[in-house]
Amino acid sequence: MTKVACIIPARIGSTRLPDKPLKLIEGIPLIVWVLRNAEASGAFDEIHVATDDTRIADAVNNAGGHAVMTSPDHTSGTDRVFEVAKQCDATHFVNIQGDEPRIPHDLLRTFATELKQIDDNTLLTIVSHATIEEKSNPNVVKAVLDRRRNALYFSRSPIPFERDTVAPALRHTGIYGFSKKSLERFCSFPPGELEQTERLEQLRALENGMTISCLVHDFESIGIDTQEELEQFRTMMAGNRYGH
């Protein structure tokens, strides 16, 4: 029987927005908004927050969630996810970034269903069409795919380069899916050169011959990496106690 666990990595040491998981929106920490959204989707058999800070763990546990303390030395969120996954009996794992509080519930349910079909050398993720502004924003990760919708590359730079014609761009959303074995395989590799250059952990998979299958689904993504994005989310959620 397949069992899908959602694990949300949340570290305290964000460089662009310090203490990001604890930033308050309507009096509620960002990490709790992410947790509540995952819970409300009904897509997962279990949900855990993997963190390196007791303040984050306390915020999650006080909200009725389940936090697991992990090593502060992990080089990527997926490495943190794997530490928790080794303690679970789930067959498949979904890594939702701790700064993605508004992924649509129907998309999470579709993602969990599609995840059960991947093999043990494959990751699953989501891409959407990017706006002109997003194409040039280094905080928005762009992707290029092959004809089977498998990723060829991810970059903070605008890709593909438009030499003679305007090409549509795809942006990546911070959600990954693995079978238990593909997660173990990914985490068995050391951080790659491209991964460290772009600061994009998914490039480790491509550097080592793994496949990244992409669902193409357009939706309004709210990834919070900067103070400006935090303020935009606060404005959007003004008067909303959804995270309560």
Structure description:
Strand 2 (24-25) and strand 3 form a beta hairpin. Helix 1 crosses helix 4 and helix 3 crosses helix 6 (180-188). The protein has helices at 30-41, 54-62, 77-85, 105-115, 132-135, 180-188, 193-198, 203-207, 227-236, and strands at 4-10, 24-25, 28-29, 46-51, 67-69, 92-96, 122-129, 142-145, 151-155, 170-179, 211-216. The strands form two sheets. Strands 1, 4, 5, 6, 7, 8, 9, 10 and 11 form a nine-stranded mixed β-sheet that branches. The chain is globular, with a radius of gyration of 17 Å. It is an alpha/beta fold and 244 residues long.
Number of helices: 9
- Supply the number of structural domains: 1
How many β-strand runs?
11
Give the DSSP E fraction (strand runs of 2 or more residues): 15-25%
Distance between the termini: 33 Å
| Percent helix range | 25-40%
Level-1 CATH class name? Alpha Beta
Query: Which fold name fills CATH's third level, the topology?
Result: Spore Coat Polysaccharide Biosynthesis Protein SpsA, Chain A
The biggest beta sheet is recorded as: 9 strands, mixed
State Rg.
17 Å
Question: Roughly what is the average pLDDT, rounded to an integer?
Answer: 93
